Fold:
Amino acid sequence: MMKMKFYTLCLSVVAFLSVSCEDVLDKENLGAINPQDVWNDYFLAQAYVDNIYSKLMPEWSYSSGGASDEAPGDGFTLNDFLKGNATIDTEDIWHYSTIRKINILLQEVEKGSLKPDEIDKLKGQALFWRAWAYFDMVKRYGGVPLILQPQDREDEDAILVSRNKTSECILQMEEDLNHAIDLLPDSWNGVDYGRIDKGVAMAFKGRVLLYYASPQFTPNGDQARWQKAYEANKAAVDFLDGQGKGLFADFAEVWYEEQNKEAVMFHRYFHPGHTSNQNLLRPIWATRDNVGGDRPTIDLVNAFPMKDGSDFDPNGGYQDFWKNRDQRFYATVAYTGSDYGIPKLQPGGVNEGYLWNYKDANGNFIEYELYEEGGNNYTGFYRNKALDKTITPQTIDQCGIDWIEIRYAEVLMNYGEAANEIGKTDEALTVLYKIRERAGIEAGSGNYGIAESSKEALRERYMKERQVEFAFEGKRWWDLRRWRRFDVLNNLGRRHALFFQLKSNAVKPSGWDDLNAVGSLFDFIYTDVEQAAGEAFNLQEEYYFYGIPKKHLDVNSNLEQTQGWDGGTFDPLQ
Structure:
């Protein structure tokens, strides 16, 4: 009920203001509302902020796995980067219209009659979102123009702004976030639950500084940057601990138990007023439109460790690949023979809610009893993570599961990664032990299967752990970029699938077959997902920083293009 009230409040007022929210203070003729009244009424002022949320708050990233080696990604913008075909116009993220709204608030909010604590809350949220908007651009392009006041649109000199150095942008983000941390409440309650609070700002500051210390921005290393990242993330962990945040006991339930202690920053969804379409990723028989997406590759499947903490060894074959994996594997990957959790009862009461995706003895693809030509699985697996198993195919696009942008697990691992880089090995290991313990990995001799102790080896371990912990959470592509590890994809060559082919003498699965018998029913065929020429990974060095799209260069002659793109001269490492 609280969630419904929150969105009714936000959406009704934002809908009113967003007829043209950027004109709220720019135009005098607003009919019933004088623009200056916005800063005399907390309800209107908060609605102005809510419109900023609507522009910048992350949401469900449909089929985000296609942006890396997690899953195939037909039609994705990032596919042009993955396959070496990117141009300066491939990705265009340019948040200046929203930054203008933020700057207007920061300039005007104290001119009205709002209470001091109301002003603090409004400014704190606005400063957070300004840092967020700049980081969203800087992580792509490097330094961009820093605009901190509303520009006079009639003043050409004020509008044609040059790019600031990346270091200047990072410093401004840090200043905005420090100010936001001072102004924001420790938490919000009631209808305001889910707004940006102090813990979110601290966690995001840690993320920003972790990126800045990482090889994307600092290819030659800088211990001072890692030290700042360590301090920011440790402060965030300590604060969140004090607020009762932490790792939720059951990894699989993190997405289903809303408002649990692991959710730090999240986008609230509810049915029927504010839903997502993530459940279109379910198999054909459990969806409506035969969409598919985020189909895990065998490359991702191989990355999940065993229950004893050891790495899975694909050289040992795939006859029992699903046995004795850690809990994150079962919470993330649905595989042939597994119970998908959605009962589908046929006449006679036979439960067909199990996945049977395979090729028959003649090589024809079968999706158990419900196969359609051009079916939506071609890796051998489905995503199992964060999908609502309770709604019907008829309401498949009405998912109410919240998107968690920042989990406590990320803040903890950001802290651990930075600790490793400044030589605090014990702290780095302790973080990994906590993450693995929650994943159900056996303690063994107390190291949860981690034998590494050197900085270099633990760096690789953190890469692997993040790959499985945050699978399909939109982090893999950004992690590979900030680590400057495009070689991981280029060396992989292509994404891979594991097809199950029914043995010639085997009986076709029906209803429920003993999962332990899968190995005797099928042969396992390891193959490329994308087979055509030009489909291999071919990421280029210049992709660590994107080129500025041509349309922005055309309207601002003072913008320099990024080095490596169309003769660009701007150095994103400065």
Q: What stands out?
A: The chain has 18 helices and ten strands. Residues 1-31, 284-290, 344-354, 368-377 have pLDDT under 50 and may be disordered. Residues 116-141 form the longest helix (26 residues). The longest strand covers residues 496-502.
